[in-house]
Amino acid sequence: MFINLLKRKAESAGGELRDLDTQKLKMSQYDHPTETYTKKPLSCRWHVLGDGSDIVQRDIYSAFLARCVISNKHHPTIIAEMWSDQEPVLRRTGWLRNQPASGNASAEPTVTPSERVVRKRRLAIDYNPDAVAAMREPGRTNGFAFRTPCL
Questions:
Q1: For a 10 Å CB count at each end of the chain, is N or C smaller?
Q2: Other beta carbons within 10 Å of 45
Q3: What is the pLDDT averaged over residues 113-135?
Q4: Phi and psi dihedrals of 124, rounded to 5?
Q5: How far is residue 110's CA from residue 119's CA, in Å, rounded to a whole number?
């Protein structure tokens, strides 16, 4: 029922619903510059591109790769074309960053929430510091830091 509803909504918006074989495609493991798959722990939230030049947030990168899938296959030429269009957008948003030549990230990538987001979060949880702490991922120093990439 949910899939049918989703399909109707996509079609009414001029889109389409695609079924992807996620086990075969392994989007979170795929690296388009090298066309290889590398298994990573779930805790690894940043993907180091195979050429070592950049790091990209893993879920954002997986969504990008899913958008490039045709007939349940990765198509390197299509990915390369779309990547050149999306790369500047990802850099501006902070989801794609330069990787230092040493291979180690010099600082943990962070995102500072806007004042509006902070106000909404406070309203949503009645600004209860214990509720904020409970929402945080284990190992985080604050609610807005991302982990460094797994190398």
A1: N
A2: 18
A3: 57
A4: -65, -30
A5: 19
Spatial distance between the Cα atoms of 123 and 129, rounded to a whole number of angstroms: 12
Confidence (pTM): 0.63
Q: Report residue 147 as tokens.
A: 């982990």
Annotated domain spans of the chain: 2-98
Structure tokens given for 115: 């004042």
Tokens 């985080």: give the residue: 140
Interacting residues of 90 by C-beta distance below 8 A, sequence separation 6+: 56, 60, 64, 96
Helix count and strand count (H, E) for the chain: 6, 5
Q: Round to whole Å and give the CA distance between 57 and 62.
A: 9
> pLDDT tens for residues 14-26?
988 888 888 899 9
Which token pair is 146? 């991302």
What percent of the chain has pLDDT above 90? Answer: 35
